[in-house]
Amino acid sequence: MVILKFYKNPGLKANLLKSKLEKIKKISDSVTNIEAESCYYIESKSPLSKDNIDIIKWILTSPFEPQELKDESDFKNGQLVIEIGPRLNFSTALSSNAVSICKAVQLEKVTRIEISTRYLIHTKTHVDKDTEKNIVDALHDRMTECRYIKPIETFDHGFRPEEWFEVDVVGEGRKALEEVNKKLGLAFDNWDLDYYSNLFKNKIKRNPTSVECFDLAQSNSEHSRHWFFKGKMIIDGEEQKESLLDMIIDTQTKSNPNNVIKFSDNSSAIKGFEVKTLRPNRTDEASSFKVNSSKQHLIFTAETHNFPTGVAPFSGATTGTGGRLRDIQGVGRGGYYIAGTAGYSVGNLNIPGYNLPWEEKQEYPSNLALPLDILIEASNGASDYGNKFGEPVVSGFARTFGMIDPAGERREWIKPIMFSGGIGSMEANMTKKIAAQPGMQVVKIGGPVYRIGVGGGAASSVEVQGDNESDLDFGAVQRGDAEMEQKLNRLVRACMEMGDKNPILSIHDQGAGGNGNVLKELVEPAGAVIFSKRFELGDPSISTLELWGAEYQENDAIMCKQDDTSLLKKIAQRERCPINFVGTVTGNGKIILSEEDDCDASKYMRKDYVSKQRHPVDLELELVLGKMPKKTFQLDRSTVKLSPLNLEQTPSIEEALDKVLRLPSVASKRYLTNKVDRCVTGLVAQQQCVGPLHTPLADFAAVGLSHFSTDIKCSGNWMWAAKLPGEGAALYDACKAMCDVMKEFGIAIDGGKDSLSMAARVDKSVVKAPGTLVVSCYAPCPDIRLGVTPDMKAPSLPEKEGFLIYVDLSGGKSRLGGTAFAQVHNQLGDDVADVENPSDIKRAFKATQQLIKEGKILSGHDISDGGLITCLLEMAFAGLSGFRINIMHKTGSAIEILFAEEVGWLLEVRENDVKDVVELFERYKCPEVHVIGKSVGHGIDSHINVSVNGITVLNSTIFKLMNIWEETSYQLELRQTDSVCATQEYTSLKDRKSPAYKLTFNPDIPLPRDAEKPLIPVAVIREEGINGDREMAASLISAGFEVWDVTMQDLLNNQVTLDKFKGIIFPGGFSYADVLGSAKGWAASLRFHPSLQNQLRDFIARPDTFSLGVCNGCQLMSLLGWIGGSEDGEPNVVLDHNNSGRFECRWTTVKIENTPAIMLQGMEGSVFGVWVAHGEGKFTFRNNDILEKLKEQNCLAIKYTDDNGEPTEKYPMNPNGSIEGIAAICSSDGRHLAMMPHPERCTLAWQLPWVPANWEYKNSPWQRMFQNAYDWCSLQE
């Protein structure tokens, strides 16, 4: 192997470098400055030719700055240079994608590409070794990175794992298991040690291998088997009648039986709808799309990834997201993802320079990240993974807590909660897996085997984090590769879209326990032989134990018939997804892992065959997966010491709000929503943000099953330190209370997960996390257009005023225990809000649903964190609407009435509907429904006036209070994005107003279409990593086109050529994860392939063709020179990184200019909202002459505008900093259009996240673009 090195300066964006400098200045006063350069390590099988090197250099550099890449470092010997790079034990996701780019341009010699960052530390004086070490620690993530003392000359890390061995249980009994338990970090408890000692010594009567012990520890861990929830509970000496799981399952008896899957398959599913679905005619080759009708059931799944996220927040959250996505994939015979949810619970943030008085300074363990870092990096990781994979996040939560309780015990989410939920769908006839039968093939699909995630199931089952050895903790964490996950998903989807011909007979996602767990689940009870030599290894040094137990990500196991192997290989090759046929179902009831070179399974099919060699795994499935004895848990209730709230001085309402509105659970979540894609797929009807400023306050999320298109179930996720004193009994009591109220509501729980090691060791103390239950509800919605959002609307309507109705279900109580108010005063309280009468809630809910159906509710919001006053303020913030209220029906202090978090909700209605609304609630026998005031005044300076029993307690403005509410989010933004941009957005709040939309055409009057004309074929071309192709196809089909699904592999294989198409569409996404620059790999695969270059040249030369590039497609068209032209083959226009330095997803206002763009004809002068979702969207020009020429030719087609509809460069209205607000450029003849916004994600009215309250149009303006393209093509015939 040969390693080639290149250097690029600068190595980091200025804002990141500034952040690093601030960190190390705190370590040493001697540090004055820091510089950074990147080093590219390129490994190849043999030396590369000059032509090869030239191609690599083109891929690695910006077309405008090729000189940045150098053969030698700018940093000289003798200076303090610290090089930080990825650990060498496995290839990074970046390397995997970079190597894929090389393969696409025929650089088959290249086997690995890694990038390090070299820091030049400027100091006033020499720094000692200890200081240098501290600086190194501050510059890297110890989980995924390490320091390179000298430049890398080989990627061979030199690590050679121990071979597997026998554990002498027969000779030494339990003692032998205890030793291997400690050595391998198996987390066996006393019950496990006794059970497995007896199993092997007395039943199987042979010694287990180390691989078998490892296997059992993972697949039968608490994490995998949920022993606690299934176990026998003895509380205070009394055996309980039901296990936790029995109680949960019993909720099904009180609910509508609409589940098609429950408590199995890692996901749950309920009956859905007959919908029109978009499907390719063929999925193994390029073909046109068709619209079919099919019955689609709804899937929901949720899981947590707490321990890995605590150790390495970014990578832990990425793999948590990926694992939950595979839970959707792995349901039945395959599932389709639609959207995700995300939640984070961490300890006190202690943001430097932002003192929140209830946060006490405490010690934190060294083996877990700090809460502030976890919140930022975990949300970065989950967002990055979903953005690249192409799953929108549409709902979530964020909470912080850390406190010394009245008993003197510290409670804090030191071990965090990283929650990931997902909604999906599945074909109604694919809910049942087909049982394993002899001769069926066992197949692994997805990424290769890496030494990552070894022992995660056991590590996550340790009672107290910090009691395991640190090295074992780190070994249990994985890495995420969203690109590989998408390839995997494409393969699974292609199989499912074959309908009854789906070759997947059964599918299981790989998670805790790795191959050992997933392959046993797949083939039970029939059994199979698995051959280790048939796995694709990412690292040739992988041991058999690691191969069997590692939780390497982006991998599923499937079964197929022997006859379908060639079809699967063909689909996998088209989607560039690795596939390995690793074994065969034998029918002998055993799972055998063979290391033989001769991978002939036929001998294992014979009943008389007896293997002469010792296999690392040779187990009867019935003994390890069959019905095992319940574990018994002896629990005792602890007396909880609680004290009433004790305030030295009762604060004013304004003083209380100054604290409560800053609490992360109450404060703005804009720092989370700005960076995550909320529109990809085009199936999102409601995401987190509402109102004219797209404020993150939505109460629900809604998605469609199709682009053409009241029974509720819940998933319960439990995060509890259940095995510590008093906690298990508390969990049992909480579960019983939840199940009782669910049955009253008629809502069933149909699935969920648990994480029962929610405690961490800090020095000699154990800090327990607050016991946590996350309930996720999902339900079929007959009409996703009927939803009520929290933003007040009446003040923006002609009537100018609305009436506010309080649906009060508190039973007259105003309890402050456990509230946000109590938390910001560093107390718990002793009397908490409760459900007084479930029947009242049911009746009020039904009445509200009826009012929604009748269109009588303008806005609505539930009372939760922060109480009634926060509910009102959030409605005002979201709608930029003031209000006047007077609470007259409740007794108690203003603090109690306004800050209690009792059950109830607020509704805004028109004046002429008030009487009908109140009477309807009375007919439903709702006891307390009161008109409490009016919404009045529109704009950021509108007044807020609150009275309680006739006494004014608050007189303020929206801006004053919203500014407080936004500040915590701003402080977090400063730590994750460019500080100038973050400050610009925060300080511009005072100037914001509802955007001024204007249409110069009527979208409800469609363009005439001749149905008799032949179909017009267009190709939606997707490279690996593209994720916006289906919504693009749907928009084109709705306009009348015949749309083809074409992959780059189809073109490279010459399976289809471009001469048959009138239009080429390059959709959005992250081709090759954009690892070496946006669309750089995609452009290279076209640029350096002569046949494709000729086809593109011929396509452009035909005057009857058009093209559209959106987002990544826009970036591609710029690199190809299709917009702005090129000089010496190099483009004149490129898309640079957003000024914010990160991915931005926003509903942004744009103006359509007067240009020759064929797709925008008749739309000139319109100002309207559109989705943007990109990280590199800043139009940049080779020189000013290029820009001026484009202006002369009227090619600047779309521009970002401010709230007045004027083009702007100001953030966040302009999300990337493009000069003059440029959002799209067309060719001089108008046939080719490249744009960063996503019109294809908002071509239907229900996809629009906000329009003015008085909006009268029934159709989305953006569909006109696609109608224009069809109309133009029709005229070319």
Automatic annotation (TrEMBL):
Q: Which SUPFAM superfamilies match?
A: Class I glutamine amidotransferase-like (SSF52317), FGAM synthase PurL, linker domain (SSF109736), PurM C-terminal domain-like (SSF56042), PurM N-terminal domain-like (SSF55326), PurS-like (SSF82697)
Keyword Cytoplasm among record annotations:
no
Query: InterPro entries given for it?
Result: Class_I_gatase-like, FGAR-AT_N, FGAR-AT_PurM_N-like, PurL_large, PurL_linker, PurM-like_C_dom, PurM-like_C_sf, PurM-like_N_sf
Q: Does the keyword Metal-binding apply?
A: yes
* Residue intervals of the Phosphoribosylformylglycinamidine synthase N-terminal domain: 38-148
A Gene Ontology cellular-component term: cytoplasm
State the EC number(s): 6.3.5.3
Domain Phosphoribosylformylglycinamidine synthase linker: where? 177-226
PurM-like C-terminal domain residues = 437-592, 811-938
Q: Which family does it belong to?
A: In the N-terminal section; belongs to the FGAMS family.
Question: What name does the UniProt record give this protein?
Answer: Phosphoribosylformylglycinamidine synthase
Q: Which organism is this entry from?
A: Trichogramma brassicae
The record lists the lineage as: Eukaryota, Metazoa, Ecdysozoa, Arthropoda, Hexapoda
